[in-house]
Design goal:
274 residues, alpha+beta, 5-stranded mixed β-sheet, 5-stranded antiparallel β-sheet, 6 helices
């Protein structure tokens, strides 16, 4: 980080949260011939409202002026992405204040939708490719879309993506309008289950973890609380995510009471779920 630079606190420069389409989870049996397939970019979701670039909770992102110069007045939905396996770089770059010019030159804005366009997603694909073409900047790119015929082909595509360092895949229903809710119009496809929860408290450790974090007490958006005690590095146990921050955890199914099974910490989530 450059001398005198600071990481922009999550929640700083907050504005009105944009109304965004949110993804449900893919389940076998969904008719794949109705969907388009794209990569799930492992970065920070960013909404261009016509005048500013912001997170899904409405925080203004401190992008350099040149990064958004010449962008259209119509909103765009996309991801600020540094490349596969470079999530931490994307997070530190997009939160740093003042912005680090050279680091921002390694960021790409992957446009994957146009929230105000009245057409179906199939129609919006052509439309957002046209918008990106007119912007004509190397760091603004249109997310490629493809078709997949069946579940077996989807799983093969997923495993190739993960092997190549990708996070997963997204399925977008071709005949769907842009609707600001969580539904099967948009589906995420991963090799594992994950979700987000808010840190409620730090629980003390025992044994080798005495005097540092033993577990996080976290709460899901639905209000369910549980302990998150594995997946941390020693450094993270010494300096755990702050109370109030959101974290991503990985798990394998649920207990009868709804608590995730084998939940393990993955990382601090860059933005609060809606």
């Amino acid at each position: 980080m450059a001398l005198g630079a600071t990481a922009l606190p999550l929640g700083a420069l907050a504005g009105r949260a944009p109304a965004l389409m949110l993804a449900a989870r893919y389940r076998p049996g969904i008719p794949l011939d109705a969907y388009w397939l794209s990569e799930k970019y492992d970065g920070l979701r960013a909404y261009w409202d016509g005048t500013r670039l912001c997170t899904r909770s409405g925080d203004t992102l401190p992008a350099p002026a040149w990064f958004t110069a010449g962008w259209p007045a119509d909103p765009m939905d996309g991801e600020l992405w540094a490349g596969r396996g470079r999530f931490e770089e994307a997070m530190s770059t997009t939160r740093q204040q003042p912005p680090h010019e050279e680091r921002w030159r390694r960021i790409r804005y992957m446009v994957f939708d146009l929230p105000r366009h009245p057409g179906t997603f199939t129609e919006r694909i052509a439309a957002y490719h046209g918008v990106v073409s007119r912007i004509d900047q190397a760091w603004v790119r249109a997310a490629p879309q493809e078709r997949v015929p069946n579940h077996a082909a989807l799983m093969a595509r997923l495993h190739r993506m993960v092997k190549d360092g990708g996070e997963g895949l997204m399925l977008h229903r071709g005949d769907a309008p842009y609707r600001a809710l969580r539904s099967d119009d948009l589906l995420k496809v991963k090799t594992h289950e994950d979700d987000e929860a808010r840190v409620v408290a730090h629980l003390p450790g025992q044994g080798r973890h005495t005097s540092r974090l033993g577990a996080l007490l976290v709460e899901t958006p639905a209000g369910l609380r549980f302990r998150l005690g594995t997946g941390f590095t020693d450094a993270q146990r010494q300096h755990p995510p702050a109370v109030g921050e959101w974290v991503t955890y990985r798990f394998r199914g649920h207990h009868a009471n709804g608590v995730p099974r084998f939940a393990s910490f993955v990382r601090v989530h860059p933005d609060a779920p809606r």
